[in-house]
Each structure stands twice: as structure tokens, then as C-alpha cells.
From TrEMBL:
The lineage of its organism: Archaea, Thermoproteota, Thermoprotei, Desulfurococcales, Desulfurococcaceae. GO terms for molecular function: rRNA binding; structural constituent of ribosome; zinc ion binding. This is Large ribosomal subunit protein eL24. GO terms for biological process: translation. Zn(2+) binds at residues 7, 10, 33, 37.
């Protein structure tokens, strides 16, 4: 059975067969649930702790 992954940016779950995998030069693998998370982390270099919608996603996952 394929593994379910978690998003490196927002912490949301990623269903098998979906999402984006990004490999850094040092070999670290990052998984993103959407292009929105990918763009915010890789291209815009934003910190997830400073964005309101990320805090809402993490809070809903904990409830």
C-alpha cells in the first residue's frame, strides 16, 4: 500500500498519486500538497508560521 505523505509547507496530508515532490541540492526531499504551497515555499521563500491560512490548516488538522 502506498504511503501517505505530509506537506512540507502547510502540514496537510497528501494522497498517494498526487502532490509535488521537490528535491534540494543536498538530497533532502520536500513534498507539497498543492502548487500554492510549492510557490510560497520555493519561489517566494515565505515562512509557513507567518501565514494565516497555514495556521488555520494546521489547527484544523489537530482538531
Amino acid at each position: 500500500m502506498p504511503k501517505s505523505r505530509t506537506c512540507s509547507f502547510c502540514g496537510g496530508s497528501i494522497e498517494p498519486g498526487t502532490g509535488l515532490m521537490y528535491v534540494l541540492r543536498n538530497g533532502q526531499t520536500l513534498w507539497f500538497c498543492s502548487s500554492k504551497c510549492y510557490k510560497n515555499f520555493v519561489k517566494l521563500r515565505r515562512k509557513p508560521d507567518k501565514l494565516e491560512w497555514v495556521r488555520k490548516v494546521k489547527k484544523s488538522l489537530l482538531d
